Amino acid sequence: MRLDPKQTEAFSAVIQTGSFEQAAKKLHLTPSAVSQRVRALESSLGSPLLVRSRPCRPTAVGQRLLQHLKRARMLEAELKADLAEHSDAPLAVVIAVNADSLGTWFFPALAQLLIEERVLLDLIVEDQDHTYSLLETGLAIACISTEPKPMRGCTAQPLGSMRYRLVASVDFQRRYFPNGMTREAARKAPVVAYTRKDALQSSFLLQNFGLPEGAYPCHYVPGTEPRFNAIRYGLGYGMVPELLLEEALAGGEVVDLAPRQPLDVPLYWHTWKVQSPRMEYLSHKVVEAAPRILGTRSVVAATQQG
Predict the structure, then answer these.
(1) Are residues 144 and 167 part of one domain?
(2) Of 13, 28, 60, which residue is a domain's last?
(3) 14 neighbors 56 (Cβ within 8 angstroms)
(4) Spatial CB neighbours of 95, under 8 Å, sequence gap ≥ 6
(5) Final residue of a domain: which of 42, 60, 78?
(6) Quick one: which of 64, 124, 211, 274 could link to 205 by a disulfide (CB 3.0–4.6 Å)?
(7) pLDDT band at 80 (very low <50, low <70, confident <90, very high)
(8) For residues 192 and 222, is the Cβ–Cβ distance under 8 A?
(9) Are residues 73 and 200 in the same domain?
(10) Which residue, among 277, 276, 271, 268, has the nearest Cα to 300 in the 3D structure?
(11) Same-domain check for residues 183 and 248
(12) How many domains does the chain have?
């Protein structure tokens, strides 16, 4: 079956912009023309591709089509680069990555590789428990996720584990936990989370004190460094990557509230089985480089395939 490029372009534009009206502006068409092209594509494939909500979102079949289109564009771009006069043309990749990886090990481990391979990054920052869905919907061609199981047509390779410590400033500890962490004290002490998707602190409090979300005050501060600053300056407490803590702990800026309960979060590199040669090489190097910084605590060594 041959896909009509104008129809797939219209479909992709609707997903990217969220509506037929915005897609029409992007493509310099009328909303009616965009709608006709999407309907023609749905008719040729024999299945609805869009949930016509606000914003529009892909159906299960639409997600598979997005995945195919994303991979096809990447393979085509790399082929053009290889055939071009300058064979060292950059490779553009869309990767979904969690903020803590981006703020700690990602660039130290991969910067030299990205420079040498002339990789242009288009990073989508999302919670590590939710990056997987961006690969699933075709918005990324690779992701760093806590999900160990690959989806169909993909591989999941272990990167190592991010170790977290539950920390607070000295003044915060004295104010809220002078006698150590207790259930009653935890009900009053503000937590600092990234977003409402961040489950690191909520899981700890539920498991150790039986406190569900909403049973304690919470700040939401997106970004690894801004959130750590909020904790260092005493606004609240929370889980912080151990990679950020060496100087702060040694200098007495923060204290470990649960020194016997570090949290290890295994991370996995997800990408497609069918990749361009350069992307395959990049994936190999990512999986090779990450454990040097992260370590391999509690991560199964074998590659999994879907």
Answers:
(1) no
(2) 60
(3) yes
(4) 121, 122, 123, 124, 140, 141, 142, 143, 144
(5) 60
(6) 211
(7) low
(8) no
(9) no
(10) 268
(11) yes
(12) 3
Distances in Å between the Cα of 214 and the Cα atoms of 73, 202, 217 are 44, 9, 7
Domain that holds residue 83: 64-160+265-305
Better-scored residue on pLDDT, 277 or 207 = 207
CATH number for position 11 = 1.10.10.10
**Share above pLDDT 90 across residues of the chain, in percent, rounded to a whole number:** 53
Residues 194 and 251 reside in one and the same domain:
yes
Across 288-296, average pLDDT: 84
Same-domain pairing of 39 and 77: no
Tell me, yes or no, whether 34 and 69 share the same domain: no
pLDDT digits (tens, 9 = 90+) for 154-189: 899 999 999 999 999 999 999 999 999 999 999 999
The mean-pLDDT minimum among 67-71, 278-282, 290-294 falls in 67-71
Q: Clarify whether residues 34 and 178 are in a common domain.
A: no
Tens of pLDDT, residues 209-229: 999 999 999 999 998 999 999
pTM metric for this prediction:
0.72
CATH number for position 132: 3.40.190.10
What is the SS3 assignment for the chain? CCCCHHHHHHHHHHHHHCCHHHHHHHHCCCHHHHHHHHHHHHHHHCCCCEECCCCCEECHHHHHHHHHHHHHHHHHHHHHHHHCCCCCCCEEEEEEECHHHHHCCHHHHHHHHHHHCCEEEEEEECCCCCHHHHHHCCCCCEEEECCCCCCCCEEEEEEEEEEEEEEEEHHHHHHHCCCCCCHHHHHHCCEEECCCCCCHHHHHHHHHHCCCCCCCCEEECCCHHHHHHHHHCCCCEEEEEHHHCHHHHHCCCEEECCCCCCEEEEEEEEEECCCCHHHHHHHHHHHHHHHHHHCCCCCCCCCEEC
The amino acid that residue 3 corresponds to is L
